[in-house]
Design a protein that fits this description.
With 168 residues, this protein is mainly β. 0% of the residues lie in helices and 41% in strands. A hairpin with a 5-residue loop joins strand 1 and strand 2.
Length: 168
Amino acid sequence: ERVAVPTGISADGRYLLYFEATGTDASSGVRNVGGDLMILPLTGDRKPSVLWSTKGAQIWGSLSPDGQWLVYQSEESGEAEVYVRRFTSPDLGAEGKVAKGGQWQVSAAGGAVPVWRRDGKEIYFLDPGGAMMAAEFAGGGATPVVSQPVKLFQTRILGGGGFGQRRH
């Protein structure tokens, strides 16, 4: 019933990020319903753990190239949006979990499948209509600076950027 979907690996090769897809939500008909973001240490005991738990699915996690930030898709608001938060390795969190600290919304009106630019200075994602969006990112301080997303171009991705979004 559940399928692990790998979404990223830390630049130092220490962690694999993934989420578990649970198939189709019978009440809404949404496909690829996910659960919590998971992290698997690739050294030591290799015991997977949940990064944090919230209401709604947390999927498509990706670590910044410097390993300091995590971008992901969340449905905790009821719609798919892209967020970023500081990443702390599981061995530093309580009970092997990353504490739920501050998070900052990247997308302005829906977003899915976020990834980092190779140098970590921009976050790319799809909007609900399938447009490729970009938001500049600066994470040098305790609070990141994220620009208003801009449309780069329209994609022809089947289903647009509505992956995992709820249908009303």
